Amino acid sequence: MANVIDITGLPPERILFSPSPLAELGAALHALSEPGHHPGLHGWVTATNAGLKTDLADRLCEADFLWRSSRSDILLPARPGATLAEELDEMDKIDDERFVAAAFEINCSPAYTRPTPSPLVDADERARVREMAAARGPRQAAFTDRMLTDPDGLRVWLRRLLEECEQAFFGDIWRRVSIQLAADARHKTELLRHKGLAETLSATSRALSVEDAQDGSGSGSTRILVDKLARGRTTAFANAADPGVTFLPTSFGWPHLLFGHAPGWRPVLQYPVASPELPAPAALELVQQRLEALGHPMRMQLCRTLSRGPHTTGELATAFGITSPEVSRHIATLKKAGLIQTRRRGRYVLHQLDLQVVARLGSDFLEGVLR
User: Fold this and answer.
1) Cα-Cα-Cα-Cα dihedral of 287, 288, 291, 296, to 10°?
2) What number is the average pLDDT over the span 275-286?
3) What's the rounded Cα separation, in Å, for the pair 341 and 335?
4) Which of 21, 202, 285, 301 has the most CB atoms in a 10 Å sphere around its CB?
5) Dihedral sign (CA 128, 133, 137, 139)
6) How far from 222 is each of 7, 94, 114, 230, CA to CA, in Å?
7) DSSP string computed for 291-333
8) Helix boundaries (H) for the chain
């Protein structure tokens, strides 16, 4: 289930770790619009939403598909600036066709990984984004029409909106979290310099890894693997003018690991900074394996019994009227999925359900689909 970034031949200095005020603002706006994704932020979300002026709240609703279900690439700068104003200045330099195409990225679109024409110049693409915006509400539809008919005016409107967010609540947030994010970025940069990419990615997120592969001709390749349900493939040289990969730490992001990789854009990953209260993410294949293991009715019955205490294979066979080899096969499946603990007591082997693993299964599943 891995997304792939081919970094073959990329010098280590082209891998950038840096905080971004614009990306952090995008993460904060996402949390405000989808608080169910971020249970640890409920207090902050409630207080911030309550403090927003009605006019600002209404305008945030108009533009929320830029950050609600997915994050537009324009909010994930590949070259972060020191201030929000600097990053907005860089955003202003993006030409209208590219800007509008990126603004209307919606995560259910299958065209994200393929070069597609801008809706400013292509009638079919224009009709598609209008239809998808209309399905999200009349305000979003009106926002879309304004972007398509007056992109320059709408871009001014959007910049003013983000600047007002900075004045209303984000300025205080950034002063508080930027020190932590900068420290994390410096730590990852030093780790990359002294320990290498594999250890750096492991420290960044357990959903990230590096793979060195050999093809049939003996040539080698190096790839960053991003463990997410959505599949994608890109290269660190997608932007020929600025090859590399950018990592943006965020204090608002968990459980999301964002991966921006539109054609022609430098790959960008936004990762949640590590903190003691964040659980380590389970691999998606392991979550799927556990769900499949529990999908069999007999294994569910066995789990019911094993949740109450340890039992031997013979006891389970007698209780359920099946043969010991059948019980052993079911136990082996549950054990392979990490759902069963086994210990030996003399000549007896006792099996018991791992209640902590099962208790986390729902949150592991939710984190996996939100990642």
Assistant:
1) -150
2) 67
3) 7
4) 21
5) negative
6) 6, 31, 23, 21
7) HHHTTSHHHHHHHHHHTSS-B-HHHHHHHHT--HHHHHHHHHH
8) 21-33, 42-51, 54-62, 84-92, 96-103, 123-134, 138-149, 151-165, 171-195, 197-204, 284-293, 297-306, 313-320, 324-336, 355-370
Q: Summarize pLDDT for 167-183 with one digit per residue, the tens.
A: 999 999 999 999 999 99
Distance CA 191, CA 274 (A): 15
Distances (CA, A) of 102 to 98, 105, 230, 259, 265: 6, 5, 18, 14, 10
| Among 271, 265, 303, residue whose Cα is nearest residue 94 | 265
CB of 26 closer than 8 Å to CB of 310? no
Q: Is the peptide bond before 255 cis (omega within 30 degrees of 0)?
A: yes
- Distance of alpha carbon 65 from alpha carbon 56, whole angstroms: 16
Q: Mind listing the pLDDT tens digit for each residue in 60-112?
A: 988 888 898 778 899 999 999 999 999 999 999 999 988 888 887 654 455 66
Task: Name the pTM for this structure.
Answer: 0.78
Q: pLDDT per residue over 306-346, tens digit each?
A: 987 889 999 899 888 999 999 999 999 999 999 999 988 88
Pairing, β 208-214 against β 220-227 = antiparallel
Residue type, 309: G
The residue type found at 369 is V
Q: What is the rounded CA–CA span in Å between residue 250 and residue 269?
A: 10
Please name every residue paired with 349 in a beta bridge, in sequence order, or none if there are none.
344
Average pLDDT over residues 7-27: 96
Which structure tokens are listed for 255?
A: 């459980």
Pick from 54-63, 163-172, 182-191, 222-231: least confident: 222-231
Q: What is the CA radius of gyration of the chain?
A: 24
Residue of 244, 248, 257 whose CA lies nearest to 76: 248
CB 260, CB 73: distance < 8 Å:
yes
- Joined tokens for residue 59: 């305008």
Lowest mean pLDDT among 31-40, 155-164, 216-225: 216-225
CA distance 113 to 35: 28
